[in-house]
Each structure stands twice: as structure tokens, then as C-alpha cells.
Design a protein that fits this description.
The complex is a heterodimer. Helices cover about 75% and strands about 0% of the residues of chain A. Chain A contains ten helices and no strands. The longest helix of chain A is centred in the N-terminal third of the chain and has 34 residues. Chain A is globular. Chain B is an alpha/beta fold. Chain B has two domains: about 180 residues, Rossmann fold (3-Layer(aba) Sandwich); about 110 residues, Cytochrome-c3 Hydrogenase, Chain A, domain 2, CATH 4.10.480. Chain B is built from 16 helices and nine strands. Classes of the chains: A mainly alpha, B alpha/beta.
Chain lengths: ~220, ~375
Amino acid sequence: MNNSMDFLLWVKGPAFEIALFIFVAGILIRVIEILLLGRKADLSEARSSDVRAGIRTVLNRSIPESGILKKAPFVIIVGYLWHICWFISFFLFVPHIEVINYLLGISWPGLPNQFVDTAAVIAMISLLAMLIYRFNHPVLRFISTREDYLVWLVTFLPLLSGYFAFHHTFEPYAMLLGLHILSVELFLVIFPFTKLMHVITVLMARWYNGVSLGRKEPENQEVQS
Amino acid sequence: MFTQDSLGKILKSHGVSRRGFIKFCSTLTSMLALHPAMAAKVAESLEKVQRPSVIWLHFQECTGCSESLTRSHAPTIESLIFDYISLDYHETLLAAAGDAAEKAMHEAMQAHKGKYLLVVEGSIPLANPGFSTVGGQSNLDVLQNVAKDAAAVIAVGSCASFGGLPNADPNPTGAVSVSDIIKDKPIINISGCPPIPVVITGVLAHFLTFGVLPELDNLGRPKTFYANTIHDRCYRRPFYDKGLFAETFDDEGAKKGWCLYRLGCKGPTTYNACATVKWNDQTSWPVEAGHGCLGCSEPRFWDGGGFYKALSLPDSDVRKMAGYAVATGLAAGAIAGIANKIKKQDMLKQHEVVSVDDWDDKS
């Protein structure tokens, strides 16, 4: 590997294949294993549609519980800010949409770069703020494991390297782009085996809880779920 | 043949006016990104300097770089520059042939030992010396012989700079660049397929004026011309920032001159001066003509994953790999699930039914 172009080609070629393999296979292994664990059949009669109850819980648990904003304003505000800005940085930047279109054949309009750039900065600040909060909160620090810090780092690196690549902070650009893609590959590789898996399992868990609670709800009455 | 006259004298004899010469020096100064006050110094030193001998060798190439150099419009600086150097050997341009041509080269080498400039166009095959020969001599032998007494080596074009097309996968001739072979001489890479004529002449002019090669980047290219990416200097850049892209070569976006990133433009990774210097006497350049940058001044640009594939896209058969991953994931997940079930069954079998009476017995 003599130069940055060789590095970029390696990162976009063999390294991407390896990362994609581990990411896809890893997620499937985890999801199938969870599904095959099974649960005892719920013999109670469904009060309403399982699908309705499931979807309802998936959606309404994305909205903060009433009163929680006062109890934990930092976690709620920064948590939302982080997730929304990360979403914008990843899904609404045109070069990223090109990759998704290439991989999955689906495409959507992107945002102008200035918006994405701002979102990426906010996302990085949010992540840093959450790390400082974690360090300073005695309980949070006590329950934090090495995995938590690893996940933080691997999530932060693609944002930082992407920011540098976009702004051509260092030369040559091919090296910066290569490092950015490599950091994303690292993210993909650890994704299925760490808490990052919550992106998928959070939906499964909410669905399961929703269906379960849906069977318990009194007839013609919405329950708080 | 090997005149020792100063440049000033030669130019005068060629009918170049003082005014024309100063104008040329000012253009050259600005082209080399020097301070305007340097123009006088450039004029002063160019007037006194003796024309250096230049030997131009052709190896595995298409002569496109020489073609580029000759596509300069008289009396532009490019054609003037020809008066500034003594091009003693150039296989495409020289009138002599055979032994006479060889003789001219050896005479120039003897007369200007240690002072002549060697310009190389094309890559050097190492897999078999017979793949490319001149007068029965392999490219490798010629290069080593001529480079031995050269003051500096200028690798013109991407083939000489980085291996170029002959070096592209699977590289059947084992083609390498000049810098892969010559290690003990100053080497300057003027990459591009072909390089911009003004860049070739600009580097020669710099050497003439200052007696040294210009400042180089990490790939041995003159920073004066290769410090910025095409993307950073592109007139279509505002469209990139606004998120306005041409999707095909004939859609509305293409007609409106929007960014060509999605059509595979390699501008962001390519360092060259096309966007500012342009081509054919500043007429146009590839992106202005409606085609994305191919990245021709970067190493391995032929293997860069396709000219019409957006830069951010993976460069591999991801569908096949995703297929393998799905199959592996499904199989491994199923195996893990079955293993868990067996474990559960075993634990159920081992389950011992106990009652309060057992507790009493034990205690």
C-alpha cells in the first residue's frame, strides 16, 4: 500500500466486504437467536389487534413520558438532539444516499450540505456532552462498562472523520475519505455484538411489550403502555 | 548544435521583443503563484540563463503527453518555452532517425553531463525487458543510462509518475513508475493523462529560473499546480453544496450545469489545475464540457472503481458478499437457536422436583 489512493481502494473494496459480511451475518445471528428463544404462547384472548397494539407501543415509546423532561432534562434533550442530528448526518447527506441506493436500490432527496454539516457538529457536541455527563454522574459512571466507552468511540469516530473529510481538514483527501469509511466499517463490525444492536432490538422489544400489553388492556379502553 | 548563448540573446534573434519577453515573465510569475514583484527577477534570471539541454524519453505510453505539450497556441508561453530549452532528443519530434538520433542523444549527454534534464513519458515494464525496447535496448536500461548523469528527472504523465494505464490491474507488463527505479536523483511528477501543457512548461520554466525544482507534494508533484482538488476549485461546487446533482447526462440537472458527483466525478480526490488553468488555450475543461473528472492525475485512477460510479460507493461485489452474509447469518442463527433449545431441554430434564419435605430431610 504505497499511497492514500491504494488505501482508499482497499477500504472501499476488501475491507468493506469484510465489514458488510460481519454486519449482516452478525445481525441475523442475533435476531434469529432471540426469535428462536421463543415465548410461551399467550392463551388469553386478544382484546384488539396485536399489530395495532405492537405498532402503538413502538411509536408512543419514542415520545417522552409526561413529567420525565423535568426529572431528567439533560438526558431527554441531548438524547433527542443526538439521535435526530445523527439521523440527518447519516441519512440526508447525498454521498451517503448514493451508497444506500447502491446497496439497497432505494433513494430519497438529501439536504444541502450546510444543514448536514451543522447537524454533524451538533451530533458531535451532544456525544461529547453525554460522555462528560457520564463521567460526572456517580451512578452512571459506576454502571459504565468498557463496552459503553468502546461504543461511544466507535460512534464518534465516523462523525469526526466525516467532518474532517467534508472540510478537507487534512491532505490528501483520499486518505481522509479512506479513514472515514474505515471508521464506519469498524462501526459495522462491532454493531451486532454490542449495545449498538439496540437500533434493531429496541423495535423488537417494544413490539413484544406492546402485543403483550394489548392482550391485557380492558376492552374498548386504551392503556398506558 | 549545443549553443552556449544566453536565453536573452536567443530570444532576440528569434524576434521576441523586450515587451513580449516581460509579458511572458509576468504570466509565468503569476502561473507559478509567485509574488508579482518576482516578475523582474524572473526576467533578469531568464535573460542570463543558458538554455538547458532536455532529453525526452518515451517508454510504455501513448504519446498523449507530447501531444498535449504540442497543443499550445503560438505565441503562448508554451511555444515560447520551446525557445527556452534545447530539446536535444525527443523521439516524436526529432527529425533524425535511427543511429543519427541515438548519436544526438549521446552527444547531448556528453556535452551537458550532470546538467541536462531528463523528461520521461511512459511507464517501464519490468516483467520482461523485451516488452518495450528502443533500438534493441530495454526501457529499463535506457532509463538507468540516461538518468545517471541527469541533473533531475521529470516524469511527465501518469504512466511515468505512477505507472498509469500500463500499471492498471492486472498489470501484464509489470509496469512501474520512474520513481520506482530511480532513487538517487531529484524526481518531479507531472501527473495527468495527459498533463496540462502549461504545467509541463511551468515546471521547466521554474527549473530554468531558479535552478531547482519547485516545492513538491507527498506524491512528488509541484504544489503550484497540484495543491488543490478539482472539487475545491470547480465552478460547479456551489451546486454540490446546495445538494443539486445531475442524475443522468441528459437530464434537467445536467442541462443546468449541476454537480456531477452522482455521475462518478472524481473531483474530490483529484489534485490538479484543470479547474483554474483549463485546456486548449483556456477554452474549457472536462467538467465544463459536461463530464465528471476521471481523476487522471491520481495514482491507480484506472482501478478507481469505475468512472461512472459515485466516489462514495463501495468498490466490490457487495451483492454477492451480502448473499453469503445472509446465508451464513441464517444458518448460524438457526444453529445457535437449536443449541439453545437443546440446552433448555437438558436443563428441564435435570430439573428436580422438590417439596418442603425434601427441605426437612436435608436439614
